[in-house]
Amino acid sequence: MNLRNKLFTAFVILIIVPLCTLGVVTYIVSSHSIEEKYSRQTEYSLKAISYSISTVLKQMDNVTDNGIATSVFHMALAAKDPTKQDLNAEQLSLNNSQRNFRSLLYNHPAISYAFLYNLNGADKSSNVSIFTKENFETMPFEDFKKQPLYKEVIDLNGVPKWIAPHEYPELTGTDPVFTQIRLIKELSYFKNIGILVVQIKNWDIESIFRNLSLSQSMQSTKFMLVNDEGLILYDPNKAFEGLQLSSVMKKPVDFGGDYQSIKTDFNDEKSIVSIYHLKDYSWNLVSVTSWKSLSKETLLFAQWFIGITLLCLLAAITFNMVFMRRITGSIAVIVRFMRKVEGGDFNVRVEDRGKDELHILAKGFNDLVDQINSLFKQINTKQKQKTQAELRVLQAQIKPHFLFNTLESINVLAIQNEGVKVSEMVHRLGSILRISIQDKEEIPLDQEIEHLQSYLEIQKFRFDDLFDYEIDIPPDLRRRSVLKLTLQPLVENCIQHGFEGISYKGHIHISCWLDQGRIILQVQDNGIGMDPKQLAKFEYMKTDNEDEAERKDQVRHLYEERRGLGVRSVADRIRIHYGEYYGLFICSSHLTGTIIQCVIPDAEWREME
């Protein structure tokens, strides 16, 4: 495939395909976002409607509670001739509380019908009429007792039971009314004496839906009241009352949960159906919103996106046919010469013809090759000198105060006539100095361990009972070569900083293993650790392209810190000697200790390759 076809294919794959993918993902995310946003808005709306409906019903509960508390129903049921008893007549001797309740009952605008089933006396089939209702005959008490509703009312033991329209038409009639049924008890000894049935008009319920303030995205929303069996009890638009919700909605619904929102077909139209269960009632508020009305903006975005994508594709084809041939030809020549330069041939030159940008590109390429050719040798020479100088400086650093403290400790032992300990301390210090002043950059790991043990023994004498240590390095790895003075600065960091102010005995564990051609040296302590801010100061893996001023500033701070070679010096030496892919890796958190891993290449593994 030639360069022109490659560029066109790349344009399609890298621009058109991602653009289409971005459009599809954006459309899906936008649709999901719209659905989520609508679901939250609907949940708030349904909760508000639920609260309003509960308030209306609880107001009526309070009215009948007042009647029970003032014994109005008890007195009506206790009359000798209950069939002639009517609260419309002024036949009861009422105290002030009863008169107030009667006024409240008669003046309540929503009450359309009310009566009492009598559970007392010989004739229990009679009922006491409180409000009459034309063209409606009360269900006989014997028939009512056969209904499951009767047992439910008895089991509620006086708690009101509400029935919505269409739930029990044989008891409540066919009018769109809400009915309260509750057990009446005699207050002195709590005996069941009657069952109260009160019907209220749905004026207040209708006003709740009529006065509901909705956002612009929910203007087309339909609300319904559905019981737990899926029967649509109330529809402000009267379109679906008395139907089963499953007859107009494809996806089945499990009622009784708190809140759920699903996307499905409702009345043969894709819609978002949200369901909220009313607390303390066996009803559910259902909202239905057409998905088309919600996704208008998303569909408009999709149309614009398709149009723009087609224009981009047409422009790509035109560009490929008209301009690409000449451009790709010249670029191919320059690329071919660049590959020669990449192979190390700095004597190649591109013939620069014409006066356009391609001529400038060819001329710039030739000038660049000339500059690279002249600078390469200078940079290579200076880099070697700089690397050698940095290694010498880093290797030459030893903390003066460590030597002073060690000599002072030897002096104290000498004054105390501790000749054996003086000899041991001098031997350890000599071992440290002998390895430190060696001209070799790399030494066997065995010598590095010897140097480390000498340092640790001196420190253990100076800081008695501050810490103990363990060196766990397999014998077959001890002949491997490492940069000298690699482990000692890491362990020194543990003692001086990790164990500072601890109330327990510190422990240092030094281990080593091989991992896919790399030697891993690990120093772990149980000290105070570092917080994220302290840990962020250690940035060891620097590249060769870092700013020169930053490098000089870091070196200056390295000397000012007076930490000898220090952790930072070890990281710099490893990077300079082995390359930027090797160095130190630190894992630490406050009060949990610190783990430092030193990663260097395994020379024997590279030789086997």
Automatic annotation (TrEMBL):
SUPFAM superfamilies: ATPase domain of HSP90 chaperone/DNA topoisomerase II/histidine kinase, HAMP domain-like
Domain of life: Bacteria
One GO term describing the cellular component: plasma membrane
Keywords, alphabetical: Cell membrane, Kinase, Membrane, Phosphoprotein, Transferase, Transmembrane, Transmembrane helix
Keyword Acetylation: no
InterPro entries linked: Bact_2-comp_sensor_kinase, dCache_1, HAMP_dom, HATPase_C_sf, HATPase_dom, Sig_transdc_His_kin_internal
Cellular compartment(s): Cell membrane
Transmembrane segments: 7-29, 301-323
Membrane topology annotation: Multi-pass membrane protein
PROSITE patterns in the cross-refs: HAMP
Domain HAMP, chain residue ranges per copy: 325-377
Signal peptide limits: none
PANTHER family: SENSOR HISTIDINE KINASE YPDA (PTHR34220:SF7)
Protein name (database record): HAMP domain-containing protein
